[in-house]
């Protein structure tokens, strides 16, 4: 057996192996084989080309485009632009703007000029035709002063103007008394309960004013406080009372000193300082009657 294998190896296999390269070369160089190899090469190259083109077309589907600037445009026009650009638009939010009519694009996401794929959804914020309701602040939030209150209203989007100025010597100039909204009188107590108006509406306020006028200080020494108050109010002057330890009833106390002196000119609303004591000062004289005593003796 071994002898037969050895003969096959020596006489058959080794000669065939040595002749294989030459036989393969002869086989590959025959016209028929060369033709078939050429057709196979063309087929392979064609297949690779088709695959590359297909992949390119697939990856370019939904190719990036630069997003249009849609802001300040009417929503109807924006939808036409989106159809041409092969993307979608959706209204995500709406805001009220006093100077912009309803249905105008205020902002967009993504922003103008951004790269997006075809078919992408763009979210829009558009102007609304219904202004939101805002709460009117309390007068005391501005210490009742109109200029401060006006600024608070402006921050909340509420307009205001002065409807009327009323003379008031007891309060500072520009103090808010009350206001009107659509003809309705609004006072502080109503605001405490919560009062709402539409953004952009106007409130008409009534405030105080002061007329600068000179007032002559009357003679007050020797008078009771009750009588002095009447004279000062008639002169549109205020007073500060300072009583000594003997005073029990302010209204029945006597004035023994005043500042400034009688005959001094003051501005309407200014203060006169008066000093009070229980007993009528001796300098006034017992026979001198004050104004209240004279009034009583007339009856």
Please give the structural blueprint:
Layout: H1 2-28, H2 31-60, E1 64-66, H3 75-85, E2 88-95, E3 105-109, E4 115-117, E5 121-127, E6 133-135, H4 146-155, E7 159-167, E8 176-181, E9 184-186, H5 188-192, E10 196-198, E11 202-209, E12 214-216, H6 225-234, E13 238-243, E14 254-259, E15 265-267, E16 271-277, H7 291-297
Parallel strand pairs: 2-5, 7-11, 13-16
Antiparallel strand pairs: 1-4, 3-5, 6-10, 8-9, 8-11, 12-15, 14-16
Walk me through the structure:
With 299 residues, this protein is an alpha+beta fold. The protein is built from 7 helices and 16 strands. The protein has helices at 2-28, 31-60, 75-85, 146-155, 188-192, 225-234, 291-297; strands at 64-66, 88-95, 105-109, 115-117, 121-127, 133-135, 159-167, 176-181, 184-186, 196-198, 202-209, 214-216, 238-243, 254-259, 265-267, 271-277. It has a 4-stranded mixed β-sheet with strand order 7-11-8-9. Strands 2-5-3 form a 3-stranded mixed β-sheet, with helices on one face. A hairpin with a 2-residue loop joins strand 8 and strand 9. The chain is rod-shaped and about 170 Å long. The model is unreliable at 287-299 (pLDDT under 50).
In short:
This protein has 299 residues and is α+β, with helices and mostly antiparallel strands. The protein has 7 helices and 16 strands. Helices cover 33% and strands 28% of the residues.
């Amino acid at each position: 057996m071994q002898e037969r294998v050895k003969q096959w190896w020596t006489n058959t296999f080794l000669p065939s192996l040595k002749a294989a390269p030459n036989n393969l070369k002869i086989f590959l160089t025959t016209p028929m084989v060369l033709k078939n190899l050429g057709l196979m090469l063309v087929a392979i190259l064609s297949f690779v080309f088709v695959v590359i083109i297909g992949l390119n077309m697939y990856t370019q589907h939904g190719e990036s485009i630069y997003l249009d600037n849609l802001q300040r445009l009417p929503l109807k026009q924006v939808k036409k632009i989106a159809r041409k650009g092969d993307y979608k638009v959706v209204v995500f939010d709406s805001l009220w703007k006093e100077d912009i009519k309803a249905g105008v694009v205020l902002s967009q996401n993504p922003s103008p000029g951004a790269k997006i794929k075809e078919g992408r959804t763009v979210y829009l914020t558009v102007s609304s035709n219904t202004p939101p309701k805002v709460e009117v602040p309390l007068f005391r939030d501005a210490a009742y002063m109109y200029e401060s209150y006006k600024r608070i209203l402006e921050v909340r989007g509420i307009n205001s103007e002065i409807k009327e100025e009323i003379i008031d010597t007891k309060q500072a100039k520009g103090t808010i008394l009350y206001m009107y909204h659509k003809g309705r009188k609004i006072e502080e107590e109503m605001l405490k309960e919560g009062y709402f108006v539409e953004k952009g509406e106007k409130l008409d306020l009534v405030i105080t004013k002061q007329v600068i006028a000179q007032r002559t200080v009357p003679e007050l020494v020797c008078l009771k406080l009750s009588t002095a108050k009447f004279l000062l109010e008639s002169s549109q002057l205020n007073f500060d009372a300072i009583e000594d330890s003997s005073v029990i009833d302010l209204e029945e106390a006597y004035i023994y000193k005043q500042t400034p002196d009688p005959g001094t000119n003051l501005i309407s609303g200014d203060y006169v300082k008066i000093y009070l004591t229980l007993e009528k000062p001796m300098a006034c004289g017992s026979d001198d009657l004050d104004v209240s005593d004279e009034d009583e003796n007339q009856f």
